[in-house]
Design goal:
single chain, alpha/beta, Aspartate Aminotransferase, domain 1, Aspartate Aminotransferase, domain 2, 2 domains, 7-stranded mixed beta sheet, 16 helices, 14 strands, 39% helix, binds ligand KE4
């Protein structure tokens, strides 16, 4: 589908009709806010099916997919081996509410990949995993305060909807009504990559902080990497003050490397949170870490956490097969090579049109900003040129490229993305950058 001046609705009449119906049934017509296209405008695209690197919408338009369901479809949509594993598990029943052998197989795979996790608990979402990890950390330390970073998103549990990223930032809802002040007051926030402020917060709160939770690469404010040595300082401060360090690797886990970002930066978090990829597109989350901390969790300890569908056999089968495919030789080399080809191509295309543009990637996760200088924290991300992002998103969408519908999200690709898919994406990007460069009201980047 080449870009032309047809209005998006002409391209997608069925999505338009479905959206008009959905808005009367579900808030904003969606079941997760970021899907509503609120910050990029236009009608959300209703997808009908996916395979490999591609999505097809209800109007039959095909897209090269760069959200991969926000990370889970890392081996490609509808991978035959994953589908076979799901079908085999489902044929034996969907859910038993009893222990199953598969849960230990998945646990073994995760623990083998991330040795800092000595014991874990499977749940059904990243939100559930993050909120549970913090409950355990509070119980383990006997403290209440937690520290998160502006722009990070750790799911929608009350205590974490404070200066949150992702859909909350996209909608300008970095806090949320309904979260009692009595809850939010225990959540401290800091600017990412600001070592001095980190030291100030710890010296002001000394041994009152139960846990620090951080996305080791922030993917919910775009793509923001830590400055060299940042986590050495954070880890040292946590050790000095007896604070539990939690790496929220829901997005980076098995995405930037098989062992997550912790395997790249050499920092051993006390706890790790996972989701997305470990379910391969089915609902699986996990939290885990030091055995002395995880032993606090019921029924081995007093901290209660439970779930009807935790460790669900069908979801676990999907996760096991996904991690198995990812452990094959060359998987992460392929993901990194595709990401590198994509972001370096985008960077040079933007530069060719004089458009300020920064890029970054790690493994199969990437990001870009319409900005001159590197983005080091959420404040920087908000100063990038969001109008250019919006134009770029719509132009690429109409040209068959599905990017995250928010400047405060990362991009993801899969083992199914071919070099020709990347080249087609770069061709579309050149067309989009040309339109942006020729737009009369294009402002320079930050
Ligand atoms: P879920 O509850 O959505 O499974 O996971 C919450 C979560 C926790 N931690 C991190 C680092 C995450 O990125 C997420 C969820 N990510 C968003 C996309 N940035 C999910 C997409 C959505 O909200 O629809």
């Amino acid at each position: 589908m080449s870009h032309d001046s047809r209005s998006p609705n002409n391209l997608r009449p069925r999505s338009k009709a479905l959206f008009e119906e959905a808005v009367g049934l579900m808030p904003g017509g969606v079941n997760s806010p970021v899907r509503a296209f609120a910050s990029v405008g236009g009608t959300p695209v209703f997808m009908k099916r996916a395979n490999g690197a591609y999505l097809w919408d209800e109007d039959g338009n095909r897209y090269i997919d760069y959200i991969t369901s926000w990370g889970p479809a890392i081996v490609g949509h509808a991978h035959p081996e994953v589908l076979a594993a799901i079908n085999e598990a489902a044929a034996g029943g969907l859910s038993f509410g009893t222990p199953t052998a598969g849960e230990s197989i998945l646990a073994h795979k995760i623990i083998k990949a991330m040795p800092a996790i000595e014991m874990l608990r499977l749940v059904s979402s990243g939100t559930e995993a993050c909120m549970s990890a913090l409950r355990v950390a509070r119980a383990f330390t006997g403290r209440t305060k937690i520290l998160k970073f502006e722009g990070c998103y750790h799911g929608h549990a009350d205590m974490l909807l404070v200066k949150a990223g992702s859909g909350a930032a996209t909608l300008g809802l970095s806090g949320s009504p309904g979260v009692p002040e009595s809850t939010a007051q225990h959540t401290l926030t800091a600017h990412f990559n600001d070592v001095d402020q980190l030291r100030e917060i710890f010296s002001a709160n000394r041994r009152d902080i139960a846990a620090v939770i951080v996305e080791p690469i922030i993917g919910n404010a775009g793509f923001i990497r830590p400055l060299p040595g940042y986590y050495d300082v954070l880890k040292g401060l946590c050790e000095e003050h007896g604070t539990v360090l939690i790496f929220d690797e829901v997005m980076t886990g098995f995405r930037v490397a098989h062992g997550g970002y912790q395997s790249l930066c050499g920092i051993k978090p006390d706890m790790t949170v996972l989701g997305k990829v470990i379910g391969g597109g089915m609902p699986v989350g996990a939290y885990g870490g030091r055995r002395d901390i995880m032993s606090m969790v019921a029924p081995s300890g007093p901290v209660y956490q439970a779930g009807t569908l935790s460790g669900n056999p069908v979801a676990v089968a999907s996760g096991i097969k996904t991690l198995e495919i990812l452990s094959r030789p060359g998987a992460y080399d392929t993901l990194a090579a595709r990401s590198e080809r994509l972001v370096s191509g985008l960077k040079s295309a933007a530069e060719g049109f004089g458009i300020p543009f920064t890029v970054d990637f790690e493994g199969g996760m990437f990001g870009f900003f319409f900005a001159k200088d590197s983005v080091r924290n959420f404040e920087d991300a908000k100063r990038a040129n969001l109008d250019n992002f919006k134009k770029f998103f719509q132009l690429m969408l109409d040209d068959g490229i599905y990017l995250a519908p928010s400047a405060f999200e990362a991009g993801f690709l899969s083992l199914a993305h071919s070099e020709s898919d990347i080249d087609a994406t770069l061709d579309a990007a050149r067309r989009a950058f040309r339109v942006i460069a020729e737009s009369p009201n294009t402002q320079a980047g930050r």
